[in-house]
Amino acid sequence: MFTGLVESKVPLVQSTSVAQAQRMVFDLGPLADFPEKAPALGDSIALSGCCLTVVQIDGTRCHFELGSETLSKTKFQGLKLGQMVNCERSLRVGDRLGGHFVTGHIDALGQVASIQEQGPWRFYQFTAPMDLLRQMAPKGSITVDGVSLTLVQADDSYFSVALIPHTLEITTLGDLKVGDPVHLETDILAKYISRQIGSLVFPPKS
Fold first, then answer.
1. Closest CA to 133 of 154, 117, 112
2. N or C, which end of the chain has less CB nearby within 10 Å?
3. Strand pairing partners for 12?
4. Pick from 34, 54, 89: which residue ends a domain?
């Protein structure tokens, strides 16, 4: 479980095809320098919102294996060496929760539709699959590339968010361009409500 509060941006330093999977190595830098922060084998870490397991550690570099299902649902297959991703270690019991509960399971890819500058702020508009858009509501929560954000608007075509300068600086969202893909995870409560409403509209066959 995660909060959607990014701790650092980390680069992809190696990527190798292994059978039907991809082994990717990211340099966690300062997050792996101190014993109290250092990840251990088997730890779950969210990279751009996708929960991945540490399978090997070389100093500050952590190895992850991405299977065909993960590669088909995410943008990692197109990630280039040196490209940054948002990084967040898993939530511990008793930690402060500043964002919202994020599972690290990517629902689908969205796409940047427009970017509007308003002083130091930026307003982003994204397209997304219809079933996800119907799980969104203004002032609700959405996770974009692992970042917990508050929805400004949401309808059957687009959703939008407003990003403050701090978020633009410490996450990869500040580097997005129109047309770029993004990882999306809707709020877990919205998923259950959508499921319940769906079962009322389309009751199971006896």
1. 154
2. C
3. 26
4. 89
Alpha-carbon distance of 156 to 135, in angstroms, equals 10
Q: Of 117, 188, 114, which is closest to residue 153 (Cα–Cα)?
A: 114
Tokens 């919102």 locate to 49
Q: Please tell me the number of Cα atoms within 13 Å of 177 on its side-chain side.
A: 0
- CA 39 to chain centroid: 19
Residue 135 pLDDT: 92
Q: How far apart are CA 96 and CA 202, in angstroms?
A: 39
Provide the 3-class DSSP secondary structure of residue 48. coil
Nearest partner of 66 among 53, 80, 78, 48, judged by Cα: 53
**CATH classification of the domain holding 49:** 2.40.30.20
In angstroms, the CA 125 to CA 161 distance is 7
Q: Residue 205: its pLDDT value, please?
A: 55
Domain holding 182, by residue range, is 108-200
Helix (H, G, I), strand (E, B) or coil at 198: helix
Looking at residue 38, its pLDDT comes to 77
Please check whether residues 143 and 182 belong to one and the same domain.
Answer: yes
